[in-house]
Design brief:
It is built from 2 helices and 7 strands. The protein has a domain of 45 residues: SH3 type barrels (Roll). Strands 6-5-4-3-7 form a 5-stranded antiparallel β-sheet. Strands 1-2 form a two-stranded antiparallel ribbon. With 110 residues, it is of the alpha+beta class. A hairpin with a 3-residue loop joins strand 4 and strand 5.
């Protein structure tokens, strides 16, 4: 075992760990931990689902503004917990985490 903790390693040693019995060192990759388990659900009012379902049924032209400022225009075909499928000039899958806001085409001078 390596007698140093990760905090004590510096320079080249911090990026790789030496495993006894092997000639090559193995790169240490950062681990991403979530703050809650996947089975843990947040309370929902179902307002989002109601709004999206209404726009799908009416085939309302929408403008979806992404976090980086890009705009996606088209009708929402379907949605799930994490994404929307938008049919415009192209069919695009948009992750909900990337959406800044959305509005009906023509409402805000689009």
């Amino acid at each position: 075992m390596n007698p140093y903790s990760m905090e004590q390693l510096t320079g080249k040693e911090a990026g790789s760990l030496f495993l006894p019995g092997r000639r090559k060192s193995v790169q240490a990759h950062p681990v991403r931990l979530t703050t809650h388990s996947l089975s843990e659900e947040l309370p929902q009012s179902h307002a989002e689902a109601f709004y999206l379902q209404k726009q799908i049924q009416a085939q309302t032209p929408m403008v979806i503004v992404l976090s980086d400022g890009q705009k996606v225009e088209g009708c929402i075909e379907w949605y799930d917990r994490n994404a929307l499928k938008v049919r415009g000039k192209l069919r695009v899958l948009v992750y909900k985490s990337a959406i800044k806001y959305m509005y009906k085409h023509g409402e805000q001078g689009a």
